[in-house]
Design a protein that fits this description.
The relative contact order is 0.16. With 164 residues, this protein is an all-alpha fold. The chain has a single domain, classed as Tetracycline Repressor, domain 2. α2 packs antiparallel against α3 and α3 runs antiparallel to α5.
């Protein structure tokens, strides 16, 4: 594979994850850690791990949503990677599963509380994409809950008495 085509593929994969939004979500988790426990909490390894989990789950949510919405996006957002033909639909599903798996494995390694958070958020993002997006009230409520959960890991206590 030529370097330019590899770069093109990586750029398309980054685009489908909405990497800037995924990074912002991770940063919100670190900001929440700082607000809950100061600089020491924000610099704690568990805070950075929780931020990575949040970023991965958010990226998963974007990818699985694009996977499900491929027909609608073909009309309304044809520049997105799947309808534009830059990423195969099956490859997008594989990426979504890899992102969810990485998030769940990292979260489980960081503790059961973060593992349950990641599992619940991943399931909620999946439910939104496959069933709730087309509903008015439930879809909006689900999205509000998903957005609000980004800073949630930052308020859990850690052994030193601070939040992560």
């Amino acid at each position: 594979m030529a370097v330019s085509s590899m770069r093109y593929r990586v750029a398309s994969l980054a685009q489908i994850t909405r990497y800037t939004n995924s990074i912002y979500a991770a940063v919100y988790t670190l900001v929440g850690s700082y607000l809950a426990g100061g600089a020491a909490a924000a610099l704690a390894p568990k805070s950075w791990g929780a931020a990575a989990v949040v970023g991965l789950v958010v990226a998963y949510g974007f990818v699985i949503n694009d996977y499900v919405d491929v027909t609608v996006d073909g009309y309304s957002k044809p520049q997105r990677p799947i309808p534009a033909g830059r990423i195969a639909r099956g490859a997008a599903l594989g990426l979504a599963l890899a992102l969810a798996s990485a998030a769940l494995l990292l979260a489980a390694a960081l503790g059961p509380d973060l593992g349950l958070f990641a599992l619940g958020t991943t399931l909620l993002a999946t439910l939104y994409s496959f069933a709730l997006k087309g509903t008015v009230l439930w879809g909006n409520a689900c999205m509000a809950l998903l957005i609000g959960r980004a800073a949630a890991p930052s308020v859990w206590p850690v052994p030193d008495g601070h939040s992560i």
